[in-house]
Amino acid sequence: MGNQILIGTGRRGVKLKKILDKLLPFILSIAVFIAVATIVSLLITLITTGGHRLSWNLILNYPSSNPEEAGMRSAILGSIFTVGLSALICIPLSIATAIFLVEYSRGGRLASILSYNISNLAGVPSVVFGVVGLGFLAYGLGMGRTVITGAFTLAVLTLPLVTVTCVEALKTVPDDLRQGAYALGATTVQVVRRVVLPRALPMMLTGGILGISRALGEAAPILVVSGLLFIREDPVSLFSKFTVMPLQLYNWISRPQPAFVELSSAGIIILLLILLALNALAISLRQLLVRRMEQLWR
Amino acid sequence: MVLSARAEELKKSIQRRRTLDRVFHTIFLLATSVSTVTLVIIYLTLGLESFNFFSQVSIIEFLTSTKWTVLFADKHFGILPLLNATMLTSLIAIAVAAPLGVMIALYLSEYASATTRSIVKPLVETLAGIPTVVYGYFALYFLTPSLLKPLFTGVQSHNALAVGLMIGVLIIPIVASISDDAMKVVPADLRLAAYAMGARKSDVALRVVLPAALSGVSASIILAFSRATGETMIAVIAGGFRSVLSFNVGDSMETMTAFIAQVATGDAPHGTIEYQSLFAVGLFLLLITAVLNYIGIKVVKRWAIRY
Lengths: 298, 307
Description:
The structure holds 2 protein chains of 2 kinds.
Chain A: H1 2-50, H2 56-60, H3 73-104, H4 109-122, H5 126-140, H6 147-171, H7 175-183, H8 188-217, H9 220-226, H10 245-253, H11 258-297
Helix pairs in contact in A: 1-11, 3-6, 3-8, 3-10, 4-6, 5-6, 5-9, 6-8, 6-9, 7-8, 8-11, 10-11
Chain B: H1 2-54, H2 59-64, H3 80-111, H4 114-129, H5 132-151, H6 160-184, H7 188-196, H8 201-212, H9 214-229, H10 233-239, H11 256-265, H12 273-303
Helix pairs in contact in B: 1-12, 3-6, 3-9, 4-6, 5-6, 5-10, 6-9, 6-10, 7-8, 9-12, 10-11, 11-12
């Protein structure tokens, strides 16, 4: 009797397990479905609410209390100024850092301490960068709540991300090439300039573009540094007051009138299109690299 | 004579190259130390202004008082309401991201074909690339009115639940990609040995691969939690600026990050206690994330099974 029951449950257990075995991939892919569904419903919400508000006015006009006329010209220029300048600071710094870590002191004690600190920097919340930008750069060094303060803040914020990609880029260059060059008597500078950099540069630029698109979407640190949600003047110098696209969008989002909600949806569509274009550029650069590499090895 | 002049020239050229090498070494070293210097500046700046703050506010009040009314005339400086809001939203976020992220990672590493993988992986990673302002918008104008309000009664227009759910979606890629990496390094031998003993594919996935990758999976969850505590714009847009100590996730509540944003956009002149509170809250937040990140890295190192 007891045995029979045991066998019975055993069989049922086996059956259940068989069903679970068949079902598991579908259960797991539900998670993928939820992720995709979120993106799709976000896009649908954006297009149905703001699609009809897309117009050149949105790019060319200054912000206004009248939603029919309002645009984000000053914010777009602010983003270009701040993010562009931050890229000019961040990308060379990241490349130099990566060269030091990989080419000059690979595996060294100093390098491991410094790269540990880079990963620590990556873990600092972005809003904290803003607070320190405000306290140290804007007030401590007297740079004010200006474009250049925002640019430096974004530059150190994106530094770890871009550096990591640059390090990866250098590691894709095969060691044989380096050893060959060293065997011919080349100095490290020569190896880096003539052997390593030409091969690693496209992937480094991909990393730079990723950093730029991260910086373009960052609102929190700029919110703290600039403090302005909208401004009716173009930034004209490094010491202009400024705002950026995500902050102008936040300003529209936080207004209760439906017209501004529509406006913010349209603005978000533009921001996402810019980010999409940047990512497409990064992907095509990577493909260019793959093709060039194939030619090199042939 | 001619020969020695040539030798002299060569020697000079070699010396020049060596000097150049040393100069570049120094330049690159300086560039590399920028991150370390920045980290020092971050801690010094926050520490200095927090010192000013704590010379006026007792640290016991800061840690135990249940009222945070820095921007009012009657000032109380208890971080608990802000801390509570941050922890509630982050826990909700992890409740979303941990199961979904691990499921995606298992699917990618055990079931997806190479083609599916090359489509699904970038798609999931897109979630981390969307600006957080956009998530805030989505939480405020879609999630709360279209999903949460019909489902639950008493949900306010700004609420912690929407914030937590939205941050959860944002950090799915962190859990998924770190867990996926951990599952990929589980050696094929383990899977094959299980199959040899008659295990089904689901057994291999759930009872062999998942436990073997546990250190990476737990680290991914800790790091994702750390990222969630620092998230600002979603909390600002969808959570609101009401600093109350409440455990009702349908209520509007202000996180630490939202408070920082509120002070920065409001009127808090340099040198006032409102301004200094920015740094005290910032330091507190930074310490929380630093401890979490440290634990995350330690978990990987301590528990990792070396294959």
